[in-house]
């Protein structure tokens, strides 16, 4: 008993750090979301989130996050499946994984610059399409500073993240399962529909939730790309912290609280799904 | 047929990922009219603000790594040795920075450490620097902790500790001269990831008003045409360098592990 009494001293620095720079600041915002300027308990801030401007910003944020998560999952899965079981030569995999490691960390301001230089009004691809094929994508309604522009940009770190997470899961599919299915007369389609996909399903859904949260909380790329012209939640919160654009500090806390709720739910889904997926990966 | 679709998927991905890189490089060379030149790079490198902010962020990144190591290595070691029941709790806390968006945390900093609070860190430049440093260490916590914990899992922590103690080593000696060198590879991989994260970080630095590289890049992007592309190439090079070194180290250590 005496030993246990002193052992906890060793983790005091860690807990102090976590408390001071992670837990307390977050709690502070959450509590602020339920307080009025006089410090009394209220639900008015949360009710204030239903103003059209804020609802719109949450709607477009969720739409962008859904689109990048769905497309990131599909494309990433296709590329990972191609490398793991598509009969490609072995040298393809290592560079792809290395590149994915780099690209999944290449987010933020420089990523926005890269896409402006490529698909902006005088970007390389925009110019080449016009010169070679006479296609003016901006005249056709494309705009990098829009929903699809943002989605296209976010995919640059979403697809690699999917590849990094799903490749081990695909490699965990045992050859025996496929052979057993084939012995029992299953076609390739049946094997995928009835064996592989049900096993992979928790991994897929979990990674989807992770990609969703990843895109929902991203600030820098969107800010450098669109300035404040596309009012997604993080951008609005950024403007709110800088200059109180909502003219109600406590509405700002409620908005931040809303962000925690959305990313928290997405991550909870990820954790639950991953623990389910691990049942098959032993 | 299967192989065709596989190649198609990889080719599609390769085009999507290579075009922005080629586009950025091409754009960064376009500053002088009618010919390719390195003018944009010269302009960036000659800018005193570039050197100041880049230097600031490099120093911050190194300090973040130092702080991260000081917090994570003793904690992960101690939990493995004496408090294994706490491991899930610690692991959960280290994952929180991935759940709570950085912008919310920094919002909390501004509220909690303002000039009228008990700990008025944002009142002075030094205080704000310390706050930003702690924020960065918090951002890097998930990566650092997981790397170090994986490294520790390959060691017999208990036996090593008992051996050191029987030779008369104190706790500082055990952690600094025994545990740290043994998980150095893991620490390095955590360190490179932290470096890549901190060097271009925008949100925290911008909201705390610190002259870091991320806000500088954003400002330049809003005001110039060709320099941002050059900056993006430089930033991509730094990220690539960090990840390359990370892979190199894990491969070297992998070789050593199988050799011994």
Automatic annotation (TrEMBL), chain A:
Q: Tell me where the transmembrane regions lie.
A: 12-34, 66-88, 108-129, 141-170, 190-213, 220-241, 253-273
Question: One biological process GO term for this chain?
Answer: transmembrane transport
Give the UniProt entry's GO cellular component terms. plasma membrane
Official protein name in the record:
Acriflavin resistance protein
Q: What is its main location?
A: membrane
Instruction: Give the organism, scientific name.
Output: Paracoccus halophilus
Pfam name, any one: BPD_transp_1
List the CDD domains hit by this protein, alphabetically.
TM_PBP2 (cd06261)
Q: Where does this one sit in the cell?
A: Cell membrane
**UniProt entry keywords in alphabetical sequence:** Cell membrane, Membrane, Transmembrane, Transmembrane helix, Transport
- Boundaries of each ABC transmembrane type-1 domain copy? 58-272
Q: Which family is this sequence assigned to?
A: Belongs to the binding-protein-dependent transport system permease family. CysTW subfamily.
From TrEMBL, chain B:
Key words of the record: Cell inner membrane, Cell membrane, Membrane, Transmembrane, Transmembrane helix, Transport
Q: Where in the cell is it found?
A: Cell inner membrane; Cell membrane
Alphabetical list of Pfam families matching this protein: BPD_transp_1 (PF00528)
SUPFAM superfamilies membership: MetI-like
Q: Report which superkingdom the organism of origin falls in.
A: Bacteria
Q: Which GO terms describe its biological process?
A: transmembrane transport
PROSITE patterns (UniProt xref):
ABC_TM1 (PS50928)
Location of the ABC transmembrane type-1 domain: 54-247
Q: What membrane topology does this protein have?
A: Multi-pass membrane protein
Parts of the chain that traverse the membrane: 7-29, 54-77, 89-110, 160-180, 186-208, 229-249
Q: Does Transmembrane helix appear among the keywords? A: yes
Main location per UniProt? membrane
CC terms in the record's Gene Ontology section: plasma membrane
The family line of this record is: Belongs to the binding-protein-dependent transport system permease family.
Protein's name in the database: Putative spermidine/putrescine transport system permease protein
Q: Which organism is it from?
A: Paracoccus halophilus
Q: What is the lineage of its organism?
A: Bacteria, Pseudomonadati, Pseudomonadota, Alphaproteobacteria, Rhodobacterales
